[in-house]
């Protein structure tokens, strides 16, 4: 049966993720700790991988239970910070790394999602990531890092997630992971970030062109094609209704769709 195989949280927006066994749904529809912190410049803009390729060189290791992060870069030895008690020290570290002043902002209700209309976690099939890895002759972990999805579903074919949204963008498609209701909205439109090596920032030549060609020719029969205005899309954006706040997602949760017959 299709089930949750992996949950990845990104505690600081644009930095490394951390795999967890379970995650609590917040009132804003996000998962607890996911993108709860963001790096902001003095103009109030995000300092993220879309705007600062250099951020790919930052390594971050998280101990969420103890609220600890270890930051490092090629020019910075590993340094340990408390995520709550040492925000100013962390901001100083990032300011030194980027060469301009930044600060950290926090949002404990829904984090800092890219899509404010679909604030829930992104969902993808593990088989999808494996297929894309084969297109580019890369390790699946590199593809996982490039596309930064939150929830992976296993025991499904590649691009299985293309059935998790409705014919119209204004509509929703309900599905459940365990006892948590999700609303699938549309296939996730991708930015320049996946074109770069997640560890070095090096650009893969013609990545978007190759991806679009492969994606369009490998679109499954069950895909809702009306939502593909272009094919530089991967994974599904979601919303989680306020009624689900406080519920827990965990590895092994079974997937149930609006139409159970479409599981196979």
Descriptive notes:
- By secondary structure, the chain is α+β, with helices and mostly antiparallel strands.
- It folds into 2 domains: 37-106, no CATH class; 120-259, no CATH class.
- The chain is built from 4 helices and 15 strands.
- It has a 4-stranded mixed beta sheet. It has a 4-stranded antiparallel beta sheet with strand order 13-12-11-15, with no helix packed on it. Strands 5-6-7 form a 3-stranded antiparallel beta sheet, with helices on one face.
- Strand 1 and strand 2 form a beta hairpin.
- Helix 2 packs across helix 3.
- The longest helix has 12 residues, at 87-98.
Structural class: alpha+beta
| Beginning-to-end CA distance, first to last residue | 9 Å
- String of helices and strands: EEEEEEEHEEHHEEEHEEE
Spatially, the strands of the biggest sheet line up as 2-1-10-9
Mean pLDDT: 95
Radius of gyration in whole Å, from Cα? 18 Å
Main pleated sheet: 4 strands, mixed
Please report the total strand number as a whole number.
15
Number of alpha- plus pi-helical segments: 4
Oligomer: single chain
Number of domains: 2
Q: Which stretches are poorly predicted, pLDDT < 50 over at least 5 residues?
A: 260-264
The dominant shape is globular
Task: Briefly say what this structure is.
With 264 residues, the chain is an alpha+beta fold. It has four helices and 15 strands. Helix 2 (126-135) crosses helix 3 (140-147).
């Amino acid at each position: 049966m299709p089930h949750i195989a992996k949950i990845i949280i990104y505690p600081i927006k644009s930095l490394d993720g951390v795999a967890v066994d379970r995650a609590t749904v917040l009132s804003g529809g996000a998962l607890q700790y996911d993108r709860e912190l963001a790096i902001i410049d003095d103009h109030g803009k995000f300092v993220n991988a879309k705007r600062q390729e250099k951020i790919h060189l930052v390594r971050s290791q998280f101990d969420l239970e103890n609220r600890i992060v270890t930051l490092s870069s090629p020019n910075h030895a590993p340094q340990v910070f408390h995520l709550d008690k040492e925000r100013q020290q962390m901001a100083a570290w990032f300011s030194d790394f980027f060469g301009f002043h930044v600060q950290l902002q926090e949002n404990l209700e829904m984090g800092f999602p890219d899509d404010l209309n679909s604030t829930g976690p992104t969902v993808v099939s593990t088989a999808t990531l494996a297929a894309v890895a084969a297109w580019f002759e890369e390790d699946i972990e590199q593809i996982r890092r490039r596309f930064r999805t939150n929830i992976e579903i296993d025991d499904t074919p590649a691009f299985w997630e293309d059935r998790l949204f409705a014919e119209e963008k204004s509509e929703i498609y309900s599905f459940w992971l365990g006892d948590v209701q999700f609303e699938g909205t549309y296939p996730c439109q991708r930015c320049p970030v996946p074109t770069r090596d997640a560890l070095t920032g090096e650009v893969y030549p013609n990545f978007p062109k190759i991806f679009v060609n492969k994606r369009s020719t490998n679109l499954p029969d069950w895909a809702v094609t009306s939502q593909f205005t272009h094919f530089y899309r991967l994974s599904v954006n979601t919303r989680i209704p306020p009624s689900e706040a406080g519920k827990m997602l965990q590895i092994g949760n079974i997937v149930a769709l609006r139409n159970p017959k479409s599981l196979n």
